[in-house]
Design brief:
Blueprint (H helix, E strand, L loop, with lengths): L6 E4 L2 H12 L4 E4 L4 E6 L3 H11 L8 E3 L3 H4 L7 H10 L4 E6 L8 H4 L4 E5 L4 H10 L3 E2 L14 H7 L6 E4 L10 E4 L4 E4 L12 E2 L22 E2 L9 E6 L2 E3 L1 E2 L6 H16 L5 E4 L7 H13 L4
Parallel strand pairs: 1-8, 4-6, 5-9, 10-11, 12-16, 13-15, 13-16
Antiparallel strand pairs: 2-3, 3-7, 4-7, 5-6, 9-10
Helix pairs in contact: 1-6, 8-9
């Protein structure tokens, strides 16, 4: 039976061993990556993957990212062309996810791919996720470790608050460093499907945008990463009932970066939204951010956080 609250264990060999045993038993475990905390399960076990969807309340048409330890594991799952291999050589391990064709007889459960002929694949650059993949000996499906549509978790406490009673264990290795989810690209079409820490400037020749109305990769739903309160963007001042998250010269009640550093802003984004959501003010306002480099990914997350829920 899942405990009322997940156990939180500090990163270490004993914690990895316990987490790996849960993975091999078909359960879900929350674990940090360099981007956000992920909710991991054996990507080859349909029942385990169904447990991810159930714990998150995630719609089954929304595919999951599969995390691998190395290229040998990746090549048992997906087919790499010359472009994909070049991207892997440059950005893996790291915060880049590639949507690639499945190999024939790929072991990944069809629920992971939402029935698509492609899979979203990433090699993470974090000791906890890498350690869990190797200790369990399995590729791990792992969306963000929060209730579907809510604010992504960058600390173990965020996971525990969002998924209380739904999962058995959180591996705690401190706050994540990148702070926002990975960039997702489709190498065959040279398209960026979701902006992230690997910026458009680092991907020359790549266009932006997914097929309208189609969900071909994670993070494409209009309403996503959302707090429980309405969010107003591009705010230069706050109304009396708003908690203002500032940036640069706009101070506010909290700030993403007082110096206007986009790397700092990305790392602090979801943590700031969690804090704003916990205040007694009924609305949240966010200062303007630049529309270049990492600012594009931050604005993408904020636009989805501010999108009206149905």
């Amino acid at each position: 039976m899942t405990p009322a609250n997940p156990r939180i264990l500090p990163y270490g060999e004993a914690a990895l061993g316990e987490a790996a045993a849960l993975i091999r038993a078909g359960q879900c475990v929350a674990v940090p990556t360099e981007t956000v905390y992920g909710l991991a399960a054996d990507a080859c076990d349909s029942a385990a993957v169904a447990g991810i969807y159930a714990a998150k309340g995630r719609p089954s048409f929304n595919p999951l990212i599969v995390h691998v330890a190395d290229m040998a594991m990746a090549e048992t799952i997906a087919r790499f062309d010359e472009e994909a291999r070049a991207l892997a050589a440059r950005f893996w391990p790291g915060p880049l996810t590639m949507v690639l064709p499945l190999v024939e007889d790929s072991p990944v459960a069809s629920l992971v791919t939402a029935g698509l002929p492609t899979v979203a694949l990433r090699m993470p650059d974090h000791r906890a996720m890498q350690g869990l993949i190797r200790a369990s000996g399995r590729p791990l499906a792992a969306p963000s470790a929060n209730a579907s549509g809510g604010i992504s978790p960058t600390r173990a406490a965020h996971v525990a608050a969002s998924l209380a009673g739904r999962i058995p264990l959180v591996l705690d290795d401190g706050a994540t460093t990148a702070g926002i989810e990975s960039t997702i690209v489709e190498p065959a079409a040279r398209r960026i499907l979701r902006p992230g820490p690997v910026t458009a400037e680092q991907l020359p020749g790549y266009g932006s945008g997914a097929t309208p109305g189609a969900v071909t990769a994670p993070g494409q739903l209009a309403s996503h990463y959302a707090p429980s309160k309405p969010v107003r963007l591009h705010a230069t001042a706050s109304a009396a009932d708003e908690w203002l998250i500032g940036f640069g010269a706009i101070g506010g009640d909290d700030t993403l970066s007082a110096t206007g550093d986009l790397n700092e802003a990305a790392a602090r984004l979801f943590d700031a939204l969690h804090r704003a959501d916990a205040t007694d003010r009924p609305r949240i306002a966010v200062a303007p951010l630049p529309a270049h480099g990492l600012g594009v990914a931050i604005q993408d997350r904020l636009a989805r956080a501010a999108f009206p829920r149905g």
